[in-house]
Amino acid sequence: MRGFLASSIGVTCAAALALPLTLPTSGARAATSGAQQPPAGPAAEAVPGTTQSLPLGPLTHRRSAGPAEAGEQGLSRRDVHPYSLVGVVWDDPDDELHGTVQVRTRPVGGSAWSGWQDVETHNHEHAADPDAAERAAGRVRGSTAPLWVGHSDGVEIRVRPEPADADRATAAYLPEGLRLELVDPGDETPPEGSAQGAKPQGATTLGTAIQGTLPLNALSEASQAVGLSVEAAAASSVNSQLVPLGATVIPELTKQQTEAALTAQADEPEAGKAKPYIGPRPRIVTRKGWGADEKLREKNFAYTKTVKAAFLHHTATGNNYSCRQAPSVLRSIYRYHVKSSGWRDLGYNFAIDKCGNIYEGRAGGVAKAVLGAHTLGFNTDTTGIAVIGSYSTANPPKAAVSAISRLAAWKLGLHGRDPSGTTTLKSGGGNLYKKGANVRLRVISGHRDGFATACPGSRLYKKLGTTRSASARLQGR
Question: Which among 146, 188, 339, 476 has most CB atoms closer than 10 A?
Fold first, then answer.
């Protein structure tokens, strides 16, 4: 057996396949979707990045202003500390913002202000299910989608309620406690090994741990996390580059290597039996790779039993970012979800940028059934994949669509799902399906299939057929 471990890629691939997003602390307990979660402590700001929260107030209006304009709230132009992403939050997560949110910004070092930019107001459908511990914790707030505006130090905002119309006798009321959130993600450094970055250098592996870079207890913790004994880890050191510990990138595997990894894990409780159809594992930029501050999120992880379906999203943050900036955008969304919206972690399980780089999202393990907060009513037994950008009127890049297919083929294959098929999910409650309803949905669905929303944008939604067929082919179907 030791000879097999030392001479084959089977177990090392298996270990890389099972590598969690972050290693749990020694006292961490895996939480189930129904378990109570401890309240999060004060978030440390050790990693660069800040959040400014500015209360909104009534705006001064011209005498001829209509009822909607008269009910506006916002802030006049002002200087602020540098930031790159904006959003609006309010006190009650059950309240909806019926109206428009627009911002003007001024870049750092510049004097010209942008025109008015729209912020997507319908964001409550990206959230934990009503009965989830995350929602019941009492920290969650209502929020718009975040908007990436680039490095700025000036801002102006107006929030205008919907006017009276045939369906509404009077102008809508705005939610209470409106606040402008300005997020600074910190340094804009591309992840090592990304499509736009350099080849990763100095990544810590099980091999370097064995050679003494890390103490033996660190190797023990790492090997337990990936399902290996210390002896087995040492025996597999010949291929330890396939098992990154705290690395910035989880490397891709061929289809043969991926299948071999599953076969090697057949006796592992978490892996289950080897699946007959699975796509090759794509390269995934880890949370460390995009600079996630692990002190922001809750310590524990939350899991469901399996992954029956993947829901496709767009982040609605706009397309005015470079792939070099994608980690910064992701750090901003993460901070906005946790610090501003009150979620336990980033809502999405995975994110993809316009260049096709794939990023791990919510912590708990890329191969595991991590409970997300992406599709209200259908977070249980699903995974959420978000393309960074807005795709209601813009076409998604081919690289991003290809990355969706590759990620779905692997992730769904781990759990024995056919990307071109259908499955049954139980609704946790929403505006399309009542709580407890058994709903037949496509294994790869758009957010709008489970909730009445524009997400993932009509242009991206039209690519679902292509994604399903491509994912099925990658699985060998």
Answer: 146
Q: How far is CA 91 from the centre of its chain?
A: 23
pTM: 0.78
Query: 398-414 vs 464-474: helix axis angle to the nearest 10?
Result: 50
Of the listed ranges 185-199, 337-351, 438-452, the one predicted with least confidence: 185-199
In three-state form (DSSP H/G/I as H, E/B as E, the rest C), the secondary structure along 359-392 is EECCCCCCCCCECCCCCCCCCCCEEEEEECCCCC
In whole angstroms, how far apart are CA 252 and each of 17, 194, 206, 274, 419? 10, 12, 17, 19, 20
Classified as helix, coil or strand, 211 is coil
Domains in the chain, start-ordered, CATH in brackets? 50-184+275-477 (3.40.80.10)
Q: What is the CA radius of gyration of the chain?
A: 23
User: For 233, what's the count of Cα atoms within 13 Å in the CB-facing half-sphere?
Assistant: 27
Cα angle at 56 between 53 and 61, to 5 degrees? 155
Sequence-ordered list of residues with C-beta below 8 angstroms from that of 25, at least 6 positions apart, any chain? 299
- Residue 188's pLDDT band, with cuts at 50, 70 and 90, is low
**Residue 360 and residue 283 in contact, taking contact as beta carbons nearer than 8 Å:** no
Q: How many CB atoms lie within 10 A of CB 162?
A: 18
Residues 234-250: b if buried by 16+ CB within 10 A, e if exposed:
bbbbebbbbbbbbbbbb
- What is the rounded CA–CA span in Å between residue 1 and residue 23? 27
pLDDT tens digit sequence for 76-135: 999 999 999 999 999 999 898 999 999 999 999 999 999 999 999 976 666 777 778 887
Tokens of 36: 């109570």
pLDDT the model gives residue 5: 32
Q: Give the three-class secondary structure for 69.
A: helix
207-211, 269-273, 285-289, 473-477: lowest mean pLDDT where?
207-211
Predicted pLDDT of residue 261: 81
Query: If DSSP codes are grouped into helix, strand and coil, which group holds residue 222?
Result: helix
